[in-house]
């Protein structure tokens, strides 16, 4: 094969890497469904930071699905920056929600407050925490999958 074509050929996924990406896809899919459930079924209007997290989470579902279907690990390079941006927004939101950041520093203007506690399960689990955990799991598994692909 000519050397100029080697950069354009798909990077086929090993079974362990495929499994990691499948778990990432499942987490992103469940997080997307959960987000839509909170807003459409429970009628909790998303704040500005929730929208930023949605902007980062929702595209992960098709990006990871396409990579899984085509057996191409190239989607990892697109998923990691999205998940990282979502993680930063979720972490800032969690800090604001938890009271570590003063409410005067919240980015919300019109609409619901980013610091308002609208749902708390068991006195501990909040919507920003669910988002933060989802992005954390996705990032860790994506990095492991990337490392697994390089070591082959």
Automatic annotation (TrEMBL):
Primary subcellular site in the record, as a coarse category: membrane
Give the location in the cell: Membrane
Q: Which domain of life is it from?
A: Bacteria
Q: Which InterPro entries match?
A: DiS_bond_form_DsbB/BdbC, Disulphide_bond_form_BdbC, DsbB-like_sf
* Pfam (any one): DsbB
TM segment ranges? 20-39, 51-70, 82-101, 121-146
One GO term describing the cellular component? membrane
Give the membrane topology.
Multi-pass membrane protein
List keywords of the entry alphabetically: Chaperone, Disulfide bond, Electron transport, Membrane, Oxidoreductase, Redox-active center, Transmembrane, Transmembrane helix, Transport
The Swiss-Prot or TrEMBL record annotates one GO molecular function as:
protein-disulfide reductase activity
Q: Which SUPFAM superfamilies match?
A: DsbB-like (SSF158442)
List this protein's GO terms for biological process. protein folding
Family, according to the entry, reads as follows: Belongs to the DsbB family. BdbC subfamily.
Which PANTHER family does the UniProt record give? DISULFIDE FORMATION PROTEIN-RELATED (PTHR43469), SPBETA PROPHAGE-DERIVED DISULFIDE BOND FORMATION PROTEIN B (PTHR43469:SF1)
UniProt name for this protein: Disulfide bond formation protein B
| Species for this entry | Caenimonas sedimenti
């Amino acid at each position: 094969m000519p050397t100029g074509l080697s950069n354009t050929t798909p990077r086929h996924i090993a079974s362990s890497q495929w499994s990691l990406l499948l778990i990432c896809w499942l987490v992103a899919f469940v997080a997307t469904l959960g987000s839509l459930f909170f807003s459409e079924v429970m009628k909790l209007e998303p704040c500005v930071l929730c929208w930023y997290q949605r902007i980062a989470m929702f595209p992960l579902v098709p990006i990871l699905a396409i990579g899984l279907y085509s057996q191409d690990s190239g989607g990892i390079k697109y998923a990691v920056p999205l998940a990282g941006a979502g993680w930063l927004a979720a972490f800032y939101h969690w800090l604001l929600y938890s009271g570590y950041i003063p409410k005067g520093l919240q980015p919300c203007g019109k609409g619901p407050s980013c610091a308002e506690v609208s749902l708390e399960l068991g006195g501990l689990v909040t919507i920003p925490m669910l988002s933060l955990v989802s992005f954390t799991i996705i990032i860790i598994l994506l990095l492991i999958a990337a490392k697994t692909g390089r070591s082959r």
